[in-house]
């Protein structure tokens, strides 16, 4: 591969990354895109292939390499720059990496650099003469249901949370009450809170979909907020980020999403529930809204989803809920249809 082609590929990679910033993508998204596409470009060079001339076989080889590389391994000096993972990458991680590559080649097609995108999109097609015209993507989609704690598990989590500082208890309560994403929670400002009406404004610039919303919170959360605000004033009397660090090293600085992740991880460990994550409270809240009869469109608005398809991926009822619903509505009908199968031939 010539130096000219290498330089040309670098220019397009750097230009595409810069474009994501110019389009207003979140900094974390831009950083993830940059890590993914530079790692892929480095892999191509190791294989002796110009990233601009990649075909489907190199995409497949890259996915295979992700399965076998050592933890934190990368290319062209990137060792350690990628999150270490002692296990094989998850289906979601592979699809995310593949999406980054696909978006990059979409850009190259739009710019006239390439005629086609080497990353196949999975499509659902119609049947034509007994043959399916759909196309399967390189990585099959695994729809794994999010973990929802049972009543006993949630009780253990709340019991463990009682020893947490009031700031952390308030964050836990708001995350559940308002179905907040981790970034939305950590970005809350004092001006976003309306204690008189128990409402929270989720500003558009802090959301994944860039769509703001206003959601209510419970009286319990209101009590925690009232207890936390005097503590916050000891750190700072200025209006601004709601949740501030008490650490001597970062005193009065806004807490990061990484700090919140560590708090939740430690809480889950103490409660004996290692599956607890920062998104668990959001999952539980949206599932609870479904349990009490909220319409799917109402839940989507509450969650800040653009499409109810996103909401359907989050909402699921537990087996216990389904069993109760089955017993109340369908058990008799099913028994009637299957009654004769229990008869023993004589």
From TrEMBL:
InterPro entries, per the entry: CB, DNA_brk_join_enz, Integrase-like_cat_sf, Integrase_catalytic, Integrase_recombinase_N, Tyrosine_recombinase_XerCD
MF (Gene Ontology): DNA binding
Protein name: Site-specific integrase
Keywords: DNA integration, DNA recombination, DNA-binding
Domain of life, per lineage: Bacteria
Classification lineage: Bacteria, Pseudomonadati, Pseudomonadota, Alphaproteobacteria, Rhodobacterales
CDD domains listed in its UniProt record: DNA_BRE_C
Similarity annotation: Belongs to the 'phage' integrase family.
Tyr recombinase domain segment(s): 143-327
Domain named Core-binding (CB): residues: 7-109
A single BP term in Gene Ontology: DNA integration
